[in-house]
Amino acid sequence: MDFAQAIKSCFSQYAGFTGRAPRSEFWWFALFQVIVVVVASIVHQLVGNVASLALLLPALAVGARRLHDIGRSGWWQLLSFTGIGVLVLIYWWVQPSGE
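RESULT FIELD:
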């Protein structure tokens, strides 16, 4: 999956927490999210905050689908509220598909 396909897929399933997302879709969307937020923050801090909020739901959805792809529940994303849990999530997100 290339960059444009990943973005299109994430926005077409922006609130879809079921199914699976391959690594490429997840990481291309993560890159897109960082670029958009950085550029929007350069324009104005308020624009950056709005962009972050607008991309939150699609990011959570693709994160949950990525966890489903490796055989985990999307609820594991709650680990991000802990400091060390983000490292665990990154480790899981880089794992190959668990078919």
